[in-house]
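pasting for ref
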Amino acid sequence: MARARKITRSRLVINPGFAELVVWEVPEPVSGSSHNYKYRLVYVVNDVCRVRYDNERGKDDHRHLDGKENPYVFRGLESLLADFWLEVNRRR
């Protein structure tokens, strides 16, 4: 049986706040997703999550921007990271 493979798990101090990026390649898509990645990308300032992209089980790919949740169209890891950093930089 294939196992999940960690792509990255990192925490970066950003002024202000921090970003945490966790990405796994999984043998089968997470329930609700059509790709083989499980991810959580967050940007937090003063204990408040300003940006989060994730694909928790059963909720498909989505993002949280300033407390509002919206669907997200996953187009690959490069696009995911670019979209995440774009939203982080808009809020810095």
